[in-house]
Amino acid sequence: MLSSKTLIFKKQKRKTKNGKNKKSKKISVSTKQESVTKQYQIAQEEEQEEEDEGFSLKDSVQSENHGVQPLGNLYFNPSSHNSRNIGLGNLQTLTDELVLDILALLEGTNLGILSTVSKGFYIFCNHEPLWRNLVLENCKGGFFFKGSWKSTFVSANKPLFSVLSCGFKVRDFYSDYLFQSWLCANLEMKPEWLERDNIVRRKGISVDEFVLNFEEPNKPVLLEGCLENNWPALEKWNRDYLIEKCGDVKFSVGPVEMKLEDYFRYSDQVREERPLYLFDPKFAEKIPQLEKDYDIPMYFNEDLFSVLGNDRPDYRWIIIGPAGSGSSFHIDPNSTSAWNAVIKGSKKWVLFPPDVVPPGVHPSPDGAEVASPVSIIEWFMNFYNETKNWKKRPIECVCKVGEVIFVPNGWWHLVINLEDSIAITQNFVSRRNLLNVLEFLERPNACTLVSGTSDRVNLHDKFKNAIETYLPGTIDELTLKAEEKKAQQNKPSFWDTVTDSKAGAFKFSF
Amino acid sequence: MSSTKLLTLKTSDGEEFKLDEAVAVKSQAIKNMVEDDCVSNAIPLPNVDSKTMTKVIEYWKKHSEEGVSKDQLNDFDKGFLEVHHSVLYDLLLAANYLNDKELVDVICQEVADRIKGKTPEEIRKEFDIKNDFTPEEEEKIRQENAWAFD
Lengths: 510, 150
Fold this sequence. Notes:
By secondary structure, chain A is α+β, with helices and mostly antiparallel strands. In chain A, 33% of the residues lie in helices and 15% in strands. The interface between A and B is large, with 42 and 40 residues.
C-alpha cells in the first residue's frame, strides 16, 4: 500500500524549481473526493516530520485519471466498497498487475468492448501503457500521436470514428498500482531533488589537467565553456532546422524508428511515466550535416576504438526527449567512459562510483543485467531521500546548455530531462581505460555483455590486434605501468580520495 | 547438485510436498532459494494452499516429462485449465507468487481467450460481473467506444 506521504498533494501557485513552496494549498485528485482527501490531509499534516512533503503535479494538462485513488483512501470512505472489486467480478482476487497481464493479451477491439462491461473494467481498459503497446505493435514508428495512446490507436484503426473521451469519472475506485502509474506520469521533479549540485566544475583547463585530475583517477567533472567556439549546433539546432535537415529519415526511438516530425508531435503532447526517448547511434551516418555541426571537445580526442573502423561498436548518439524522459541507473557498456553535451534544455544527473550500487538497483552477479524495476520518477520518489544521509553520497548536478559532463568508466548514472532536450553523447576508450576495456572484453560472458556491435565474440581479439598494429607496444607499456602502480598501493575507492570523506567501514558488496 | 535431490515444500495449510529439485526449480523463487543454499529445511509457501500446490505440481511434472510432444502438452494444458474459475485464479496467483512465468503466461492466455469475442453481457456472465453503470453512463461509455463494436 502506498505510504501516507504519497497521499498528500499541494497546489502549485506557479511552476517553480527554486526554493520550497512555503505557502501551499491543498489539491485533490478529483473534485468528488475532495472532502475525503482533505480530512485525511489534515490528519496527516500533523504527523509530518518534513516541512515540504507532497508532490507537484505538472502545470500543463495532465493525463486522464478517471477518478482512480490510492488504496489507503479506501479506509476513509464511509461505505468502504471498492468499485474495482465489483467491476472485476471473479477476477477481483487477482492482483492489478495480473489483471493487466491478461489485458495485455487482448486486441484493441476486445479492450474497447471490455471497457463497457463495468466501471472497474472501464478504468483498467483505459490504462495507457496497454494502448501504447498496441500502437507500437501495429503502427511501429509510423503513428500519428493524438493526445493519448488510446486515441492514437482508434484514430489509426477506425479513422471514421470520434476519439473523444467522454471524460467519465468513477467514484470509489481504489488501486495503488493504477494510481501510482498515473501519479508518476504527471509528477514534476520536486525542487529538493534538484538542489544538490556537488559535482566538480572546471572551465578552460588543459587536456593534461583533465587527464591528471579526472580521467586518470576516474572522477566525474562538469566542463564549462568548451563548446563555445566550434559547436554551430548550439545556435543552429532548433526544431525547424532539424526537421528540415532530417526530412523523412527515421531515428531510433525505443523499439521503433520514427521521423523527427512525428516524434516531436508525440513528445509535445505526451504525459507518461516512461516517455519514448529518441536515442540514435547512427545519426551522423544518416544525416552527415549533423556531424558537421559539432566537434568533439579536445579532452576526448583520444578514441582508440577508431582503429576498428566500421567494425567498432556504437559510440555516438543524438539524444532527444521531453521532460521526464531519460535513462534509469546503468553503467555504460564495454567499460568505456563517456561525455554528454547539452545543446538544448537541461538534464539532472545522479552518479554513483563503481563500488556503490544505487538504492533500488539490483545488478545480477555477473553484471550482465541490471534490474531497476522503478521508473526514473519513481526512483526519486522512493529512493532518492535514502541517499541524503549516506556518507558515500552520489555526485549530482544539473547540466545546462553548453555544458559537458564527463562520466568516468564503470560509474553508475541516472539522467532525467527537466525540459525538452537535445544532446550529443559519445563513449570512448583512451589509453587511460584501454586495459579495463580489454579485460572486460575478455570475460567469458563477453558475448552477452559486450554491446553495440554485431560481432561480440571476436571483439576482444580484433581490438587487441588492431591496437598492436596501429599503436605497437602501447598495451605492454600500459600493463607495465599498471603493475608498478599496483605494487605500490591498493587502489583506493573514489570516496577514499575525497578528503572530507569520513567513510569508515560503510561498504557494499555482492 | 545431484538430479535426484528432493526438496520439501510446505503449504499454508501445513501439508508437505516432496519434489525433485530439478522439477521444483520451474519456480524462479524456489530456484533462487536453491542458489542461495537455504533449502535444507522445508520451504514454507504461506501463500499457496495444498489444493493449489497439487495442481501446480501436476503441471510441473507433465512439463518435465521426457518424450512428450508439443501437441500432447497443448492437449494436456487445455484439459488442465478446464477448471472452476476460483481454482484457475488461485492457480494464477500461486504461479505468480512462485514466479513461474511459463505457467502465468498460459493461464493469462486462457483468461484472455475467455474474454475475446464475447459481448459485454456475455463477459459479465462469464466472470459474474455486476453492471454498475446507470443507463445514462452506459450509453456515454458505449458511445466513446462505438468504434470497437463496429
